[in-house]
Amino acid sequence: MRDSVLEFARHGAKVYMASRTESRPPQAIEEVIAQVPNTQIEYLHLDLTSLEGIKQAADEFISKESQLISCSTTQVSWLWLPS
C-alpha cells in the first residue's frame, strides 16, 4: 500500500489516507512526506463499520475535492489526481 501511495505522491497526486484508526496514519503520512517532501497528503477518518461513518467521510471528502480515484488493498485509500 505504501508503495502505491508513494508513487501517486511522486506523480503529483493529492493523497488521502483513510482509516478508522486515528493513531496509525500520522506515522505513515510522515514517512511519505520524508520521501516526497512537497506532497499533498491528508488523513481522512473512515469508519466502515457504520453507514453514518461512511457518510461522514464521504461528506468531508466531497467538501474538499471534485474527483476521486481509489486504490485499495487491505486498507482503504482515496486519491484525487489533478486533471
Q: Which characteristics define this entry?
A:
about 80 residues; alpha+beta; four-stranded mixed sheet; 3 helices; 4 strands; about 25% strand
In short:
The protein is an alpha+beta fold and 83 residues long.
Describe the structure.
This protein has helices at residues 2-10, 25-35, 51-64, and strands at 14-19, 40-45, 69-72, 76-80. By secondary structure, it is of the alpha+beta class. The chain has one domain. A four-stranded mixed β-sheet has the order 2-1-4-3, sandwiched between helices. Strand 1, helix 2 and strand 2 form a beta-alpha-beta unit. The model has no long low-confidence stretch (mean pLDDT 83).
Q: How would you summarize the topology of this molecule?
A:
Elements: H1 2-10, E1 14-19, H2 25-35, E2 40-45, H3 51-64, E3 69-72, E4 76-80
Parallel strand pairs: 1-2
Antiparallel strand pairs: 1-4, 3-4
**Biggest β-sheet strands, sense, barrel:** 4 strands, mixed
Strand elements, count? 4
Poorly predicted parts: none
Rg over CA atoms, rounded to whole Å, is 12 Å
Strand order of the largest sheet: 2-1-4-3
Q: List the domain count as a whole number.
A: 1
Mean pLDDT: 83
N→C terminal distance: 23 Å
Q: Which secondary-structure class do the elements indicate?
A: alpha+beta
Q: SSE string, helix = H, strand = E?
A: HEHEHEE
- Name the shape in a single word: globular
Strand content: 25-35%
Q: Please, how many helices?
A: 3
| Residues in helix, % | 40-55%
InterPro entries: NAD(P)-bd_dom_sf
Protein name: NAD(P)-binding protein
